[in-house]
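I'd like us to work through together how a protein chain folds, taking it slowly. To get us started, please write out a protein record for me. Go ahead whenever you are ready, and we will take it from there:
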Amino acid sequence: MKLPAPLVEGKLVRRYQRFLADIELPDGRVVIAHTPNTGSMLQCAVAGHPVLISRADNPARKLDWTLELILVNGHWVDTHTHRTNRVVEEALRAGEIAGLAGYQVIAEQRFGTSRLDFLLQKGEEKVYLEVKNVTLTDGGAVACFPDAVTERGRRHLHELLDAVRQGDRAVIFFLVQRGEAAAFSPADQIDPAYGRTLREVAAQGVEVIACRSIVTREENRVGERLPVIL
């Protein structure tokens, strides 16, 4: 999907209070940008990293600026988690994800006590799909999730397993935003309980898909599928 335009270059000074970041502009001014990401942004929210920010045209907004991309190890990383589902939805509707093409796409489907990201439907066949945004690596070429302990993430895995038990397909889809990533694995060093749960549900039929995104200054789209190491 297309990113907001124009994007303005800057340098990250600090991220704080979870949703705020100080950004230094090329002229030396420091502005406060909204940071739409609830995770730790480990490896990404590092002082000195180049960033791209957008300016809102909504006078009702408290902050004029939004943090869009961060340059990490020479690759633009999309940390804007509100965009992740839209990137995946665009690819689903275009039939660009192998094994998930040809379905009617329904966003925000309630299942059990959760609201899963997508229901894919083709006749009587149903596929429940939950999307996770991945911005962390193991320090090398393996992308990892999560970047902070996530009880909510484990609950989603249990809901997907329930879908399998009732006879439907269920998919946990990791959109990997790190351009250097060549594989995906759970971040056991950060949340070992999530890793254990992911392996348990995968062994019982929940499908695990990881795809690397293609991120430029202009767009973010779903790219190639990555091996999953459990």
